[in-house]
Fold:
Amino acid sequence: MRLILLGAPGAGKGTQAKKLSKKYGIPKISTGDILREAMQKGTALGLKAKSYMDSGQLVPDDVVIGIVEEKLKDKDCVKGWVLDGFPRTLQQAQALDRILTGIRTSIGHVLNFEVDEEKIIKRISGRRSCESCQSAYHIYFNLPKKDGVCDSCGGRLIQRNDDKEETVRERLKVYQEKTQPLVNYYSERSLLKKIEADDDIENVFTRICSFVL
Ligand code: AMP
Structure:
C-alpha cells in the first residue's frame, strides 16, 4: 500500500493518514508533522522552516524533498507508506518520481480530498493540537475528554500559529497556486481517486478503505 494524500490544508488528510497507518501497519510520512517537531526541538531544520510555516508559505522544495527521501529509504517503508502533505509542488512530485524509481517502487494511489473552502476555514481555525505529541483535536468535531488536555499524553492543547484564520486564507491561496496543478499531474497518469471529504471522520475513512483495498 503506497498512498499519497492530496488536498487543501484542513481537508482531513492528517487524521486519515494516522488511521490508515494504524489499520494497515504502514508508516505515515507527514512533512508538516516532521517540520513542526523540528521547530519544537529548535533544530537547524526547525529554525529554517519556522518563518515559512508561521506565514502560511511553503518551505523550500530541497528541504522537504531531502526529508522525504531519507524516510522512504528507511527499511520500515518496504511494506508501504502513506504520504501526507507531500508532494505539494510540481518539483516535489517530479523529485518523488525520481526517488521511487531509484528504489524500484511506485505510487499505488493518489487520494484527492475534496472539500468546500469555507468549511475548511471553519475546520482549521477550530483545530487544536497537543504541544507535546502533536495529536489532533477539534473544538467542534473531535473534542478531547478533558477540555484543553491531550487524551493520549496529558499535554496541553494549543492552536498552531498557522491555523489562525488569516494564515489559513494564505495557505489556501498557496494551495491553489502550487499544489492544485498536481491533480492533473496524477489524473493524467490514472493514479487519482476523488474522495468526498466533507463528511465525518469514520465515513471518509470507510470510503478510503474501499478504494485502496
Ligand atoms: P501541513 O500540516 O501539512 O498543513 O503543513 C504545515 C506547513 O508545513 C505548511 O503550511 C508548510 O509551511 C510546511 N510544509 C508541510 N509540508 C510541506 C511540503 N511538502 N512542502 C513545503 N512546505 C511544507
